[in-house]
Amino acid sequence: MDIFILGRVVKELKEITIDATVRDTYCLPDNTLAIELSKKEGSIYLILSASNQFPRVYLDNILPFKPIKSSFSNTSNVHLENMRLTLVEQVPSERIVEFIFERFTLWRELERRKLIVEIMGKHSNIILCKEDNTIIDAIKHIDSTKSRVRQVLPGFPYIRLPKKETPSFSQLEDYIEPLEVTLEEFLIKNVLGISPLTIEEICARAGLDKNRVMTSLSLDQLVSFKEAIISFRNNLENVKPVVYLDEDGNPESYYIFPLSFKDNTYEQYEFLVSACARYYDWVIPNLFLENRKKSIIKEISSEIEALERKKGELLDGLTNLKDPERWRLYGDIILAYSTQIPSRADRFSVEWGGESIEIPLDPNKTPIVNAQEYYQRYKKEKREREVIPELILDIEKKIEELQRKIKEIEKASSMEDLETERTKEEKESSLPYLVYNFKGYQIWVGKNAKSNELITFKLSSPSDIWFHAKGYSGSHVILRTNGRAIEYIPEDVILECARLAVEHSKARSGTKVPVDYTYRRNVRSAGKKRGNVFYTNYKTIIV
Q: What number of CA atoms fall less than 13 Å from residue 168's CA on the CB side?
């Protein structure tokens, strides 16, 4: 909020709010406080904000946002409720506004409280003080780790930040001379809290570009710059508040009077505080909406990236899979020639079907064991060749669904629309655990320690199968068997459960992760810490 706009707002606050009584205080998002003031004419809200991006002071007929819980608003309410606003003052040449509130105690003693609003960009703050300037509370606590200059903490004395020495704006033209700075830099350096719109307006009145270096100006141009400052200063008394509109008819900016360099359509108001309300009631909710949309889309995009990586890994794995029939052939050959293979041989060569084949062997294992390992490898890769395409298809469906959600979020035109969309998602995942369906089997995946305990010890049956990534913290996975024994569960279903156990654990980015699985009846709680278990009679599968 520009220092000139703030000065005019303070004048209007004096006219409108003095002698009003505080009915309540509310904390709004983004370090904003709303004070409900009551007068004979009705109630109005004094909006004070220490937002980093939009610090501001103005009046509004409505609460622009739904209140949120805050200790600062509670403290403010305790100290300000039923107090009368008796003074509103702007510290000269500063973007600091002080509000004085008074009331008589039960003992007829006059009690005063001071509310100080500092509008300083990211250093903005709202500070509640006693009459002697002892800080009661602040919307932003500043300790010694955040500032060496001053601390803003309950019980500390309130001290203003050191004031930057600048010329009085009423005499600014006297300081104009050929300097090695641009016009914009000159104004920023010498006018504390000047806004880009004010800089543009002064330079437009002078007919000069704000980026012109002052040493490059002719004498006539320097005179024009001086006259522009005087003209602007005189115009500050000619208050005709306006809100400029964009092509869609929505507020784009506002000012004390119509700006000479702008030709947009604008709305005119009697009071500047009304123009402020019109502008901020549109801009701030839309800013919050866009920021919230970006945050949600970022989360969903991260999910999509993780799924894309997983899909890439599966595609690479599928590409690297050779014909699994080769492993079965190796097993068949080893069994057929098991009596002819020398002890501790590390390979075996044979002519088979008109082709010379050399088979690698583990010299520390017998031919029978080597054959069994080739058969197991054959089964594993055959199963992977069948399951991986299904997993890829499932991932692609998830990605499509997430991309659809992004489009829905981008279309949201209000926080209500956005919350409706998020509520739909929450309802879809309202169960305290995740549910997957794979080839007619239902699989449960815990979301956290409490959820793990729920599905393992309260909802599952003793004959269900329990999975967990070995040596890693992560979700419990329950395969609902409906009484079927492990040996009758298809291997690709076991593999899918093991894959989910890895995906929902800290081993999700690893390769060849061991996953233990056993009947749920073999799993026992391991003590007071929720979710910790020990288990017996388990098997291990590598994913």
A: 3
Distance CA 118, CA 97 (A): 7
Q: How far apart are CA 261 and CA 397, in angstroms?
A: 53
In this model, does residue 430 exceed pLDDT 80?
A: no
Give yes or no for a contact between 251 and 287, defined as CB atoms under 8 angstroms apart: no
Contact 251/283 with Cβ under 8 angstroms?
A: yes
Please give the C-alpha separations between residue 329 and each of 325, 342, 366, 374, in angstroms, as whole numbers: 6, 19, 17, 9
* Matching residue, tokens 């305990």: 453
**112-168 tens-digit pLDDT:** 999 999 999 899 999 999 999 999 999 999 998 988 889 999 999 999 988 888 899
Tell me the C-alpha distance between 1 and 47, whole Å.
Answer: 13
Six-digit token string for 468:
């967990």
Residues ≥6 apart with Cβ < 8 Å to 137: 71, 72, 75, 76, 127, 128, 154
Nearest to 314 by CA among 541, 499, 516, 505: 499
Helix (H) or strand (E) holding 426: helix 415-428
Predicted local distance difference test score (pLDDT) of residue 410 = 87
pLDDT category at 380 given cuts 50, 70, 90 is: confident
d(CA 219, CA 226): 11
DSSP H helical segments within 236-360, as ranges?
272-320, 325-336
pLDDT of 351 above 80 = yes
What's the 3-state SS for 18-84?
Answer: CCCEEEEEEEECCCEEEEEEEECCEEEEEEEECCCCCCEEEEECCCCCCCECCHHHHHHHHHHCCCE
pTM of the full structure? 0.67
CA-to-CA distance for 401 and 307, rounded, in angstroms?
12
Query: For residue 127, what are its two tokens?
Result: 């500070």
Residue 158's closest CA among 193, 115, 123?
A: 115
The DSSP output letter for 512 is S
Q: CA-to-CA distance for 156 and 296, rounded, in angstroms?
A: 40
- 406: tokens are 């992004």
What backbone torsions phi and psi does residue 79 show, to the nearest 5 degrees?
-85, -25
The strands making up 441-446's β-sheet, listed across from edge to edge, are 433-438, 441-446, 477-479, 465-469, 514-519, 539-542
